[in-house]
Amino acid sequence: MALRHAVLAALLHEELSGYQLAKKFDTGVANFWHALPQQLYAELTRLETEGLVTGREVVQDTRPNKRLFTVTGAGLAELERFTAATAKPSFIRDDLLVKVQAVDQVNAEAVLAQLRERAAFAEAKAELFGSLLRTMRGDRDEEEFLRHGDRIGPYLTCLRGLAFEEGNRDWCLRGAAVLEERRAARARG
Amino acid sequence: MALRHAVLAALLHEELSGYQLAKKFDTGVANFWHALPQQLYAELTRLETEGLVTGREVVQDTRPNKRLFTVTGAGLAELERFTAATAKPSFIRDDLLVKVQAVDQVNAEAVLAQLRERAAFAEAKAELFGSLLRTMRGDRDEEEFLRHGDRIGPYLTCLRGLAFEEGNRDWCLRGAAVLEERRAARARG
DNA sequence: TGCCCCATGTAAAAAGTTACATGATTCG
DNA sequence: CGAATCATGTAACTTTTTACATGGGGCA
């Protein structure tokens, strides 16, 4: 039941349509959670019937009409309750880790290729997060911004996203280097 | 459908019972995946009917009997197929991140407390992973072990787990420091 | 004597993924 | 002219979580 809270948190600063929300959750720009469009449309509907968000129709001539959603007082109260409750620890769940775990018994070439691919993906995401952070803090430096800025929440979660992707990248590159080195050693005899 | 592959990967080196497997997956010692006991018992049953693992009954007098599972040839082939297929990117999904995202609008004290708690948890896990790594590499240094050791798969995934938890800890401590500083600033002015 | 560990599950509910559906507009 | 974007969903399926069930042995 955390998707609803993720949606509420995402709508806290901006009024968004389901479509816009979906884009954020999909690309991982909303890097504190991930969800598919269908989930979001369904969740927004549920949240609206429960009075936690309100939608207003925006009629567009050139584009299809859309509904923009805002968090209500009840929605904010619900987020407050959620925030006060204790959170469970989070776990990694990643196909690639499973493959690496098995790398001694299976085709290492395939794993090597996927490590390289993932490293590139992680690097791209890290760069995206980096530029988002620069945009958020403007001309202030980070220390200054975190001391006195408003809206530090999204900044902090983006920092975690950045570190996570940098960690991914570094680990993938390290793993790839190890596998390459071992392949080379086998080739030498 | 990755749980089955996680189970196969976990059983690759050791023969384990459902209970033992559950403990690993629960404490996150099998830090490349996480699953509840019920899932594992169900998955083991399924894997056995599909011939991907075989169980052998071990009769115990003082303890209840148990069934130890091993990966079959078909199981290894299935892992091989899985490894060759392309993996999807992984996303963070964490309650605490949602709470931090909302921290500007909700009670920051609760978030601060949870950041501290999580930092401690992450630190404990990082230490556990650190000692697991030391055990795995024995008296060799890491470079040496990764070059010439066998079973580097579990070592590499454990390295990722370690970096992840260190990242968690550092980020939590940073976030907590920021929130404290802002509280102090508010109190002053 | 009460609580934790061993050991294995079933059943139901919630959450997440995959597949499919529709239709206009803008861009290369 | 075909593909991508805007915009919103429904339906079926898979996966994960929560709650419940059972029963002996060891330990404080």
From TrEMBL, chains A, B:
Q: Which residues form the Transcription regulator PadR N-terminal domain?
A: 7-80
Reading the lineage from the top rank, the first entry is: Bacteria
Q: Provide the Transcription regulator PadR C-terminal domain boundaries.
A: 92-179
Signal peptide (UniProt feature, chain positions): none
User: Which SUPFAM superfamilies did the record assign?
Assistant: Winged helix' DNA-binding domain (SSF46785)
Membrane-spanning segments:
none
The family database entries (PANTHER family) matched by this protein are listed as:
TRANSCRIPTIONAL REGULATOR YQJI, TRANSCRIPTIONAL REGULATORY PROTEIN
Q: Which Gene3D superfamilies match?
A: 6.10.140.190, Winged helix-like DNA-binding domain superfamily/Winged helix DNA-binding domain (1.10.10.10)
Q: What is this protein called?
A: PadR family transcriptional regulator
